Amino acid sequence: MSQEFDFTDNSHRRYNPLTDSWILVSPHRAKRPWLGQQETPAKSTVPEYDEKCFLCPGNKRVTGGANPKYESTYVFQNDFAAVKIDQPALAVQDSGKDTLKDRLIKVQGVRGNCFVICFSPKHNLTIPQMAVKDLFTVISTWQGLYNDLAKQARDDNKPFKYLQIFENKGTAMGCSNLHPHGQAWCLEEIPSEVSQEFKSFDKYKHAHNADLLGDYVKLEMEDRSRIVLENDSFLVIVPYWAVWPFETMIVAKTKTPSIAHFTDKQKEDLASMMKQLTVKYDNLFETSFPYSMGLHQAPLNATGDELNNAWFHMHFYPPLLRSATVRKFLVGFEMLGEPQRDLTAEQAADRLRKLDGVHHYTENL
């Protein structure tokens, strides 16, 4: 008699409806010995104020300006912005003759602006160490920046279409400054990853007359095996199609296109979710857990399908795999074939769910 398929031990592929792609899951590989690269643990002590930090209150920035002695969340224009508002227009490259160059060599000029968002004046804090009320201020700052840039696009014809808010935490994720901060890049085009999600939302709605993430929330609330946290406004889920070992998604339980539509209750609930989740991350391997995190939401001044299809959610992509020093790398088959993971989403969710909400990782406290 044939054995029953075991999702915790047998290889299988899972579909990601957000990006219309697949991921290979190989749970039996988690048993293999690790002789690969190990990360250096984060520094055990970081001062509350660092005179050499370009982001600390009152300090000079590398370009010569100085930060005010801010006492809360602080936003300023990135001194090394990835996109600029003022630059020459790029001439149209298409000859209109269907040449090989026209088909294969495509380019667009892109304008915009970039911002740095210091979460706290204290150099040694991270999100899991911040109070919920202070995270509420961070979220309100995100909301204010979103609304301000939308107004500038409407009233001043600024080239702002999409605001990508994100945070890279930890040197393992390429963060060059340990001061608690995130970034916001505003472009006149919707970035590729977000654009693909909108295409998937639109395709799903036309096929099923429903919202993709709305249906996914219903499914997860019925199944519950991948839910890590829940409150009135949000779920924290390890997505069925997660790529990173302890990847999670914070998703609105009811349709909310963007942070501009948030009530104070939703901001409070999101602040609570962000703190609880990141505390669990730190407790998992008793380290300051690195990740890349970002918000996906409606474009600025969205109308029509862009507004109707949008559903606010946040992605957390943390790289640690087995311990504070062993990380997941996307290489080999994952670069040349498709993403692959060694533990199932359900196993990851179970481990995160069992961790309590008290911050046991004591570095900098």
UniProtKB/TrEMBL annotation:
Fe cation binds at E197, H296, H313, H315. Residues 197-361 form the Galactose-1-phosphate uridyl transferase C-terminal domain. GO terms for cellular component: cytoplasm. Zn(2+) binds at C53, C56, H123, H179. Pfam families: GalP_UDP_tr_C, GalP_UDP_transf. Binds 1 zinc ion per subunit. Binds 1 Fe cation per subunit. Its cofactor is Zn(2+); Fe cation. Keywords: Carbohydrate metabolism, Galactose metabolism, Iron, Metal-binding, Nucleotidyltransferase, Transferase, Zinc. The keyword Cell inner membrane does not apply. Its EC number is 2.7.7.12. One of its GO terms (molecular function) is UDP-glucose:hexose-1-phosphate uridylyltransferase activity. Gene3D superfamilies: HIT-like (3.30.428.10). The active site is at H181 (tele-ump-histidine intermediate). Pathway: Carbohydrate metabolism; galactose metabolism. It catalyses: alpha-D-galactose 1-phosphate + UDP-alpha-D-glucose = alpha-D-glucose 1-phosphate + UDP-alpha-D-galactose. UDP-alpha-D-glucose binds at residues 29-32, 62, 78-79, 168, 174-176, 183, 328-329, 333-334, 340. Residues 4-191 form the Galactose-1-phosphate uridyl transferase N-terminal domain. One of its GO terms (biological process) is galactose catabolic process via UDP-galactose, Leloir pathway. InterPro entries: GalP_UDPtransf1, GalP_UDPtransf1_His-AS, GalP_Utransf_C, GalP_Utransf_N, HIT-like_sf. It comes from the Eukaryota. PANTHER family: GALACTOSE-1-PHOSPHATE URIDYLYLTRANSFERASE. Belongs to the galactose-1-phosphate uridylyltransferase type 1 family. This is Galactose-1-phosphate uridylyltransferase. It comes from Maudiozyma exigua (Yeast).
